[in-house]
Amino acid sequence: MRKLLWGAVLAPIFAAALGGCEAPREPVAVFERDAVPDKLSDWHIVEAIDGELLPNDGVLPYDLNTALFTDYAHKLRTVWMPPGSSAEYADERFEYPVGTVLSKTFYYPRDTSGIQDAVLRTDDYSRDYVAGRTGEALNLDNVRLMETRLLVKRADGWQALPYVWNAEQTEAVLEIAGDASRLQLVSGEIEDAGFTYVVPDANQCAGCHADNHTDKAIMPLGPRARHLNKDYAYADGARNQLLHWQQVGYLSGLPEITAVPRNVDFTDSSEPLEARARSYLDINCGHCHNPAGAADTSGLMLHHQESDRRKLGLCKPPVAAGTGSGNRRFAIVPGEPEESILNFRVETTNPGAMMPELGRSLEHEEGTALLREWVASMGGSCS
Q1: Less Cβ crowding at N or C end of the chain, within 10 Å?
Q2: In-domain check, residue 257
Q3: What's the chain look like in SS3?
Q4: 189 and 108 share a domain?
Q5: What is the pLDDT of residues 269-285, one digit of tens each?
Q6: Does residue 49 lie in a domain region?
Q7: How far is CA 7 from CA 84, 137, 254, in A?
Q8: What is the residue range of 178's domain?
Q9: Per the domain annotation, does 296 fall within a domain?
């Protein structure tokens, strides 16, 4: 079995940048496509050690300006590249070197009320991390791990691998067929909601990550320039992620940071309403609703580059009427979100009508409120 092993070339840089580990750890291992291990810990990317979920040396955490909604789950994202290699900058998608491993761990803050299988609905990440190691080490006393998804760059493309965490929170096991867990989402301000957390199977992972419907090639969706262009709270201080990737040797060809595109944080009320709504639609819908995506035949284009208001949905009739349209006439009726198909589809939890089709069973109330505000602010009519 061939492995690509993490060496010592860049270890001192990462030890300084990430705070290092108290004891030596096994180096990152990359397995061949047809010989991937059943246990996540064999990769040595992120591991549960002494009550903490820890990225290895050289495994760099990152975040997005606006992230895909997944039933209010929190996420720890990481990137690792083989020693001496780097991603090549591009506006739309980076060219990652063979052997790159991207990880995304989905988890929830623990609820302490005693309700069975209860997790917290909160935007507060402050209790998720070990004290003094914000952004790096998850505190397993305070969070419940659900799954860790890996994307591994092969010579012939990307491979998606879903690992599901056990009840003891000590190990995650490869589940190609996916998994499902019944949870209770608890909030002090909003009515509690029972829901089923679904881990997609490998084919569903591939379906969402193939933003080109013709070649159906899996691609990373989040770690692209416009999503990464923001500060991250590293253990030793906050700084721009793209500049940090460049510093540690993970990114080459980066232009002046002022020339790099940037999506806004959809929750940032200081940003223009239009920019916030477009950022939200881009990350949640744009991977399918683009000229080459799986929803290309719909004619509704929600990716960040679209400037044609009709293609964005303004007074655009649906390709097919019925359940999926909520019996509404146009994708967006200016000033009237309650008459707009777009608002209906992101708000409904009917599996036959909701959008996105995968990755959620609950309504994202903060996101749908933003889209309602955006549509309500539009002038004109579709008469």
Answers
A1: C
A2: no
A3: CCEEECCCCCHHHHHHHHCCCCCCCCCCEEECHHHCCCEHHHHCCEEEECCEEEECCCCEEECCCCCCCCCCCEEEEEEECCCCCCEECCCCCCECCCCCEEEEEEEEEECCCCCCCEEECCCCCCCCECCCCCCCCEECCCEEEEEEEEEEEECCEEEEEEEEECCCCCCEEECCCCEEEEEEEECCCCCCEEEEEEECCHHHHHHHHCCCCCCCCCCCCCCCHHHHCCEEEECCEEEEHHHHHHHHCCEECCCCHHHCCCCCCCCCCCCCHHHHHHHHHHHHHCCCCCCCCCCHHHCCCCCCCCCCCCCCCECCCCCCCCHHHCCCCECECCCCHHHEHHHHHHHCCCCCCCCCCCCCCCCCHHHHHHHHHHHHCCCCCCC
A4: yes
A5: 999 999 999 999 999 99
A6: yes
A7: 10, 22, 25
A8: 3-252
A9: yes
Residues 168 and 275 in one domain: no
Distance between CA atoms of residues 324 and 87, nearest Å: 40
Q: What does the block give as tokens for 108?
A: 């929830």
Tell me: do 295 and 336 sit in the same domain: yes
Which tokens in the block code for residue 59?
Answer: 């495994």
Residues 199, 282, single domain; the answer is no
pTM of the model: 0.91
Q: Give the pLDDT confidence score for residue 115 in this predicted structure.
A: 85
74 in the same domain as 27 = yes
| For range 239-263, the mean pLDDT | 97
Domain end among 207, 226, 252: 252
Q: Are residues 131 and 241 in the same domain?
A: yes
Q: Domain boundary residue among 209, 230, 252?
A: 252
- What's the mean pLDDT when you consider all of the chain? 90
Total structural domains within the chain? 2
145's CB contacts (< 8 A; 6+ apart) are 48, 53, 105, 106, 107, 138, 165, 169, 172
Same domain, 25 and 126: yes
CA angle 330, 335, 337 (to 5 degrees): 60
Is 32 found in the same domain as 173? yes
Torsion of CA 198, 202, 207, 208, to 10 degrees: 50
Separation CA 177–CA 111 (nearest Å)? 29
